[in-house]
Amino acid sequence: MNPLDRMQIFARVAELSSFTQAAQVLGLPKASASLAVQQLEAHLGTRLLHRTTRRVQLTQDGQAFYERCKDLLDDVDELQAMFQQPDGAALRGRVRIDMSTGIARQLVLPALPDLLARHPLLEVELSSTDRRVDLVREGFDCVIRVGPVAEPGLVARPLGLVRVASCASPGYLARKGTPQSLADLAQHDLVHYVSTLGTKSAGFETMGDDGSPQFHPMAGRVTVNSAEAYLGACAAGLGLIQAPLLGVRELIDRGLLVEVLPHHPAPPMPVTLIYPHRRHLPQRVRVVMDWLTAVVQAHLQSEAHGAPAAA
Length: 311
Hints:
Layout: H1 3-16, H2 19-26, H3 30-44, E1 49-51, E2 56-58, H4 60-81, E3 92-99, H5 101-118, E4 121-128, H6 135-138, E5 142-146, E6 154-162, E7 164-168, H7 170-176, E8 192-193, E9 204-207, E10 213-216, E11 223-224, H8 227-235, E12 241-244, H9 245-253, E13 258-259, E14 269-276, H10 283-305
Parallel strand pairs: 3-4, 3-5, 8-11
Antiparallel strand pairs: 1-2, 5-14, 6-14, 7-12, 7-13, 9-10
Helix pairs in contact: 1-2, 1-3, 1-4, 2-3, 5-9, 5-10
């Protein structure tokens, strides 16, 4: 194993705070990852990581070495990219990305075969989760976020705005009636979506005259903490929901959900591409980020010029 390989293993262990997870990501036995870091420490004459039975943490020397190590590894990727074809035909390696299930299913996965066909040596690891992943610690190259972004130290590339649709199932509307005004909400139920169970959402959201969010408290007997459960609860007739249109458009088109109160919209939600701040980005990451930007922006522009779904 050459010094660059050891540095790559060390960097991944440092990012994931785990030899086991780093070994899994790199496709190595855990013992090989541990030995590589030991050999690197012996060569440098300093301890880079504090190891306990519960966690792995960078030492002060390890933190300094990690920062220089990442710059060097990025420079190596950049140097190798100098000898690739201008159109990126020789892209190789893994790119790890995260996004919502709706964006993955509706936008990215349908377009992914074309990207992989153009870059046969490129590998993509795509995560879809309701929680906000830690880009650096979990080793993500970039993520697409829907909603406010407040993560210092990261680079944010705005992609646009997505419309929020208020929806209910046909069965629910047949039973409870279709709300025609905000005053009608008093007679309806809201499926509450929260990150932490035990709390309640602020209520039904609309956009004020100045563009600021306005909340209307609503009753609701069901609270969920995942996007799939949120859509499932609405489809089951348990109440109204409000979700990014890109996540519910297919269900609306299939008649499984119906958009309501389209003239009282919630504020649109920002869509942002986020990535760690690095002096250089590997060419494969730049290419994938530009591709993601084009795919998502094309959809947002199309949505912005389209007509609202029928109520």
